[in-house]
Design a protein that fits this description.
homodimer; mainly alpha; Arc Repressor Mutant, subunit A; 2 domains; 3-stranded antiparallel beta sheet; Transcriptional regulator (chains A, B); DNA-binding transcription factor activity (chains A, B); WH-like_DNA-bd_sf (chains A, B); MarR/SlyA-like (chains A, B); HTH_MarR-typ (chains A, B)
C-alpha cells in the first residue's frame, strides 16, 4: 500500500487547532450576540447589507458574500424578516431577482451591536495575536480562499 | 462617544479571511466526504471513536471532543446509528451514562475514508502553507483554544 501522506504531528496539530479554534470562537461569538437576539450568521448578513449601496443586495450576491447556499440564506432571511430586521423586495429590472433590504430597525441594530461585536472579536482573537501573526493569518487564509475559489471556478 | 476600537484594515482582513476560509474549506471537505455518504462532522466522530480504547467514548466526552452540545451530538449519533456506523450502549458503572461505540462498518469506513480525507486536507490547506506557516497556525489557534477554554472554566 502506498503511503497515503499522513499528516505529521505538527501538521495534524495545526489542522486540529484550526478546527477547534474556529468552532469554539463561533460558539463564543454566537453566545455574545444572543444578548442582542442575533446569531453570528445574522450579524454577517446585517453587516453586508449595511455596507451596500441603499442597504440592499440581491439574494444571489448575499449568498456568495456570506458563503452559503441560496436555500439556506432564504430560510435565514425569512427568520430575520419575521424579526423586522430586513425585508425582501423584487428587483424592478429582473423578474427573477429578489433583493434583501435592511430595515431601519436592522440598521439601528447593526449600529448598536457592532462596537460590542468588534470588542468580542478583539478579545477572543485579534488581540491574542502579535501584529506579525495577524499579517500571517491574513496571508494564509486569503491564499486558502483564493485556492478554493479557483477550484470551484475551474469546474 | 469613545472609540470602540474598530479593527484596522489588516485586522479586518485577517478576521474576514479566517471566516471565509473556514467556511469554504468546510464546504469543500464536506462535499468530498459526501462521496462516502459522510459529513465532516460524521468523520470527526468516527476518528474520535476509532482513536479511543475499545472504539468507544461516553457521549459527554465525545460532545466535548467534537465541541458540540450534547443534544446536537445526540441527533448526530442517531443518524449515524441509522447508517450502521455506530451504536449506543449503556455504561455499566453509571446508570445515567451512555457510550457511543464504533461498529465494524464504522471502523472499515474510517479506514477507507481516512487516506482520501487526509489528501483533501493536504490539498486545500496544509500543502498551501510553508512549514513556518503550519507552525504559526498551530501556535495561534492553540492559543485561541486555550483562551476560550479558560473563559469557560472561569464561569
Amino acid at each position: 500500500m502506498e503511503d497515503p501522506g499522513w499528516l505529521s504531528p505538527r501538521e495534524q496539530g495545526a489542522w486540529r487547532a484550526h478546527l477547534a479554534a474556529h468552532r469554539l470562537l463561533s460558539h463564543q461569538l454566537d453566545r455574545e450576540l444572543q444578548a442582542f437576539g442575533l446569531s453570528l450568521n445574522d450579524y454577517e448578513i446585517l453587516v453586508n447589507l449595511s455596507e451596500s449601496p441603499e442597504h440592499r443586495m440581491r439574494m444571489s450576491e448575499l449568498a456568495d458574500a456570506t458563503i452559503q447556499s441560496r436555500s439556506r440564506l432564504s430560510h435565514q432571511i425569512s427568520r430575520m424578516e419575521a424579526a423586522g430586521l430586513v425585508t425582501r423586495e423584487d428587483c424592478e429590472d429582473d423578474r427573477r431577482g429578489t433583493y434583501a433590504v435592511l430595515t431601519d430597525l436592522g440598521w439601528d441594530t447593526t449600529q448598536r451591536v457592532a462596537p460590542e461585536h468588534v470588542a468580542s472579536v478583539r478579545e477572543h482573537f485579534i488581540d491574542l495575536l502579535t501584529p506579525e501573526q495577524v499579517a500571517t493569518v491574513e496571508e494564509i487564509y486569503t491564499h486558502v480562499v483564493d485556492h478554493i475559489h479557483s477550484i470551484r471556478s475551474a469546474k
